[in-house]
């Protein structure tokens, strides 16, 4: 898999997850402690805390991923931002005072390990992955 495919796959997944957060049945209603913004508040797939702003952020990351997949440099920038942003969200989710991002977005529970996984995969593609051209691979 190359970095542009990574951006395309992450883009599609983020879009699906973001839209799914608004669909009853996929997201069960749930009251998150300490959350000020309660619109579309629930547990996506019964596991992941979401609300309207959380879903919109996923949709925006999805759209950005699909656009970023158009070029190597855009896809690498996307991967780097996803890695840093989701690592920070994972850390914030571990701290009780910030596990709702100051009352706006719930990021606790299963979101913590998921954000860690997303950050690790994105960090690989953004910082460690070295793409070789087909011509260079033959020599």
Strand order of the largest sheet: 1-2-3
Number of helices: 5
Number of domains as seen in the coordinates: 1
Q: What is the string of helix and strand elements? A: HEEEHHHH
Main β-sheet, in a few words?
Answer: 3 strands, antiparallel
**Share in helix:** 55-70%
Residue runs with pLDDT of under 50 for 5 or more positions: 134-139
Distance between the termini: 20 Å
Mean pLDDT: 93
Give the CA-based shape.
Answer: globular
Structural class: mainly alpha
Rg over C-alpha atoms, rounded to the nearest angstrom: 16 Å
Beta fraction of the residues?
A: 5-15%
How would you describe this protein?
A hairpin with a 3-residue loop joins strand 2 and strand 3. Helix content is 59%, strand content 6%. Strands 1-2-3 form a 3-stranded antiparallel beta sheet. The chain is mainly alpha-helical. The chain has one domain (3-138). The protein is globular and about 50 Å long. The protein starts with a helix and ends with a helix. The protein has helices spanning 3-20, 52-68, 72-94, 110-128, 134-138, and strands at 27-29, 42-44, 48-50. 35% of the residues are buried.
């Amino acid at each position: 898999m190359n970095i542009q495919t990574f951006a395309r796959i992450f883009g599609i997944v983020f879009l699906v997850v973001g839209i799914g957060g608004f669909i009853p049945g996929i997201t069960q209603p749930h009251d998150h402690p300490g959350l000020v913004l309660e619109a579309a508040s629930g547990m996506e797939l019964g596991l992941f805390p979401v609300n309207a702003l959380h879903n919109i952020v996923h949709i925006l990351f999805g759209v950005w991923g699909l656009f970023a997949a158009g070029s190597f440099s855009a896809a690498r920038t996307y991967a780097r931002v996803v890695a840093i942003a989701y690592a920070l969200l994972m850390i914030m989710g571990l701290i009780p005072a910030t596990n709702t991002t100051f009352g706006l977005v719930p990021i606790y529970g299963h979101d913590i390990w998921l954000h860690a996984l997303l950050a690790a995969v994105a960090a690989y593609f953004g910082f460690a992955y070295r793409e070789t051209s087909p011509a260079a691979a033959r020599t």
